[in-house]
Amino acid sequence: MNDTVKWTGRLIVEKFDEDQTAAALARTGLTAPTGDDFAALGMAPREVVESGPNLITTAGLGRLASLLIGTGQAATNTSARIGVGNSSTVASAGQTDLQAASGSSNRWFQVMDASYPQVSGAVVTFRATFGTSDGNFAWAEWGIDIGTPTVSSGATVSATLLNRKVASNGTKTAGATWVATAPITFSG
């Protein structure tokens, strides 16, 4: 008899268009509304897309093993990011980064929203809000990375890629706000 743990990761993208973003900015006075801000305003996304399941990377498994014995950086709202890119290169466990060119305008890693990641039972939920100037290209891949205690949003990898998925999630344009939520479920 073997013991197994199943990993199921997916991405849910809530798309708020330019008009919705402008209305949220005007009503709140914020410079960058998050998914929670849109919800508080009673605004539903214009579109929601979902992709999954995804592939945990070899480096991601190593990160999880390290955390079991209390070493390595845990996923926090200042150490974890959701990354998106435009590459449709097939996902492979050995990949250590998104496949869109590093530093290019066709990949972006966004830090977590303030209260994420969250844990409920055996589900860890990551969420990042991609503002009006973040990730404006075709989203063909996504993943989560975990770095040092403080990472920043940007186009370069500075952390361990936990997982990766190739999926067409649409093309984000300037002025729009997209909220990317990635629940990961562990089961036996």
Task: Describe, in plain words, how this protein is organized in 3D.
The chain is an alpha+beta fold and 188 residues long. It is built from three helices and twelve strands. The protein has helices at residues 18-28, 35-40, 58-68, and strands at residues 6-9, 11-16, 47-51, 55-56, 80-85, 107-111, 118-120, 123-130, 141-146, 160-161, 163-166, 177-187. The strands form two sheets. Strands 1, 2, 3, 7, 8 and 12 form a six-stranded antiparallel β-sheet that branches. The longest helix has 11 residues, at 18-28. It is globular, with a radius of gyration of 16 Å. The model has no long low-confidence stretch (mean pLDDT 92).
Characteristic terms for this protein:
single chain, about 190 residues, alpha+beta, six-stranded antiparallel β-sheet, 3 helices, globular
